[in-house]
Amino acid sequence: MAINSIGNGAFGNNFLFNTATNNKKQDSISQLWSQYGSYQNNANEALSGLTEIGTNVRSLLSSYDDAKSAFNSELSENMDALSKSAAKVKEYNFSVSKDDAITKTDSTDENGKVTTTTTYSKELQGALDAVKDLVNDYNSSIKFFNDNGEVSKRVENLAKSFGDTTYRASLYESVGLTTKSDGSFEIDEEKLANAIVNDPDKVSRILGKDGLAGKAESHVSFANSQKDNLFPSAEKMFGNQLKNAAIYTGSAFRNMSALNNTGNLINMMF
């Protein structure tokens, strides 16, 4: 009876009220834990996405560094080679002895077919080799800039500059150099050899310091002055991608910060 009386009294009501309040609090905590778990999964996904983005960005930048290094290395090789061959032709003395400079020898095979072999004196061969080295290096430089024209506007302009040889095409042709559509050259060796033997001064004017060699040196000097600006920065090349990566990264970090705050809130309730 006493127990029943107590149960129906003020203490009993307080007990019931406290029980209901505690139950409500427990329900709130359970719900919060549930939300925290869901948020944690989302944050983990964000963190996973951040890791993947970070890996992709690092891979992208690594590829960029490799490409830039390869570009600069090939650029230096081409410009150094062209600079050396141009300097040699620029100062070359094309005056060679005409005695036995060009020798032609006929030979007949068993079927009666006659083959003519042309040989050059050592002096003339040296002059031919100097010109051939210049032409080969010039052609290689044109190919390099044409192949990489899409890298930047500066590279594209250099390709056009190196390839601008058509306005002197007739002069080059007169000493055995045929100008192709991209500005590169083909050599008619025998025609060049005859030009060297018969008119060395003309060859020197067209191919020497006031001709192709001088032009090549000028191009090399300009290309080297632009070297640091030819290959675009990573920001210019991958601008949008890097900006997006930064946005996603920032979002992921914000989610992680909110996650920590939620955890602290739950800890305070216990």
Explain this structure to me?
This protein is mainly alpha-helical and 270 residues long. It has a domain at 77-235. The protein is 74% helix and 7% strand. It is built from eleven helices and four strands.
Low-confidence residue ranges:
1-17, 246-270
Helix-strand pattern, N to C?
HHEEHHHEEHHHHHH
The radius of gyration is 40 Å
| Sheet with the most strands: spatial strand order | 1-2
Helix- and strand-based class?
mainly alpha
In short:
The chain is mainly α. 74% of the residues lie in helices and 7% in strands.
Features of this protein?
single chain; 270 residues; mainly alpha; two-stranded antiparallel ribbon; two-stranded antiparallel sheet; 11 helices; elongated; disordered C terminus
Describe the SSE topology.
Blueprint: H1 2-7, H2 10-90, E1 102-108, E2 114-120, H3 122-147, H4 153-162, H5 169-174, E3 177-179, E4 185-187, H6 189-198, H7 200-207, H8 212-225, H9 227-230, H10 234-237, H11 239-268
Antiparallel strand pairs: 1-2, 3-4
Helix pairs in contact: 2-3, 2-8, 2-11, 3-4, 3-6, 6-7
